[in-house]
């Protein structure tokens, strides 16, 4: 049956008034993020109007020259530091709407963080370090999940060792397993391979890649290294506190080209 003219017109009107199509869902992101340190002549704009969102189940590398704002962005995204202005969200939650207790709880349950220097507790065994975020949250955790993480990370025969009895690569694998223990919405990693030899670094990168491919984990990693960034699905480039480039499916070559074009 042919639509009556009035109806056609109504549909057209409703289309005109319809909200814009939904953007791709994001696991986390920042909106017009600004962060300055110091005042007056000494002020530094570490973040100068950054808009970036991270798709769920993807591995993103954040690159840029020294001092471009990478660590500041990561720390603000993870709720470890606060923006001067703008907004940060993790999942459905804007961090500015949380009080200190709620922010601590969100960080514990929805955010994993991997540091360059591993940051393991020296007096705890590898297994105790891995389940620490669950213990702190008073949770038992999903034993089958922890088992799967431990198997994927390949540390079953090292679980009773303390960090000092493990190599750097093994310590970082414990740190990544710890970040995965709570099945967080997102894992942030700040130069996770910076203190590792190239073989151990490759193991960690492959492990993070597997966590994204097999577990659907979302990972955002700061790195200087084009080889490390080539494991990611996307590379976002910062310079002087601004996003200046965004590459899909980066390879070492496309990353080097982008860095050259930005004068890195
Ligand atoms: N706590 C602070 N106090 C003052 N200035 C700071 C502070 N933290 C960072 N900055 C400045 O903010 C800018 C961005 O620093 P940030 O550490 O985020 O850069 P980055 O890209 O991670 O550098 P790198 O690659 O060297 O680690 C730099 O100019 C830095 O000196």
UniProtKB/TrEMBL annotation:
The stretch of residues making up the signal peptide is none
Residue ranges of domain ABC transporter in the record = 28-263
Cellular-component GO terms for this entry: membrane protein complex; plasma membrane
Q: Which UniProt keywords apply?
A: ATP-binding, Nucleotide-binding, Transport
UniProt cross-references to SMART domains, sorted A to Z? AAA
Q: Which GO terms describe its molecular function?
A: ATP binding; ATP hydrolysis activity; transmembrane transporter activity
Q: Which Pfam families match?
A: ABC_tran (PF00005)
The record's section on CDD domains has:
ABC_MJ0796_LolCDE_FtsE
Q: Which InterPro entries match?
A: AAA+_ATPase (IPR003593), ABC_transporter-like_ATP-bd (IPR003439), ABC_transporter-like_CS (IPR017871), ABC_transpr_LolD-like (IPR015854), MacB-like_ATP-bd (IPR017911), P-loop_NTPase (IPR027417)
Tell me the domain of life. Bacteria
PANTHER family from the UniProt entry:
ABC TRANSPORTER RELATED, IMPORT ATP-BINDING PROTEIN
Q: What is this protein called?
A: Putative ABC transport system ATP-binding protein
Q: Which organism is it from?
A: Ilumatobacter fluminis
Instruction: Show the taxonomic lineage.
Output: Bacteria, Bacillati, Actinomycetota, Acidimicrobiia, Acidimicrobiales
């Amino acid at each position: 049956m042919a639509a009556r003219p009035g109806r056609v017109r109504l549909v057209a009107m409703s289309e005109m008034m319809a909200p814009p199509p939904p953007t791709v869902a994001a696991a986390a992101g920042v909106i017009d993020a600004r962060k300055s340190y110091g005042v007056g002549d000494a002020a530094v704009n570490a973040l100068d109007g950054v808009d970036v969102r991270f798709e769920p189940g993807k591995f993103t590398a954040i690159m840029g020259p020294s001092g471009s704002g990478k660590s500041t962005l990561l720390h603000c995204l993870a709720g470890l530091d606060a923006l001067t202005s703008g907004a940060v969200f993790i999942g459905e939650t804007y961090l500015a709407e949380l009080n200190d207790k709620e922010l601590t709880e969100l960080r514990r349950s929805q955010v994993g963080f991997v540091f360059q220097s591993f940051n393991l507790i020296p007096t705890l065994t590898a297994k105790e370090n891995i389940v620490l975020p669950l213990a702190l949250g008073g949770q038992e955790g999903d034993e089958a999940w922890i088992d799967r993480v431990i198997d994927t990370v390949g540390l079953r025969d090292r679980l009773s060792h303390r960090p000092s009895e493990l190599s750097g690569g093994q310590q970082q694998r414990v740190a990544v397993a710890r970040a995965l223990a709570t099945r967080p919405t997102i894992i942030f990693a700040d130069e996770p391979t910076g203190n590792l030899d190239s073989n151990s670094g490759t193991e960690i990168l492959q492990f993070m890649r597997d966590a994204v491919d097999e577990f659907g984990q979302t990972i955002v990693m700061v790195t200087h290294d084009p080889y490390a960034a080539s494991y990611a699905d996307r590379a976002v480039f910062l310079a002087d506190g601004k996003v200046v480039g965004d590459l899909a499916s980066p390879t070492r070559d496309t990353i080097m080209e982008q860095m050259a074009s930005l004068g890195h």
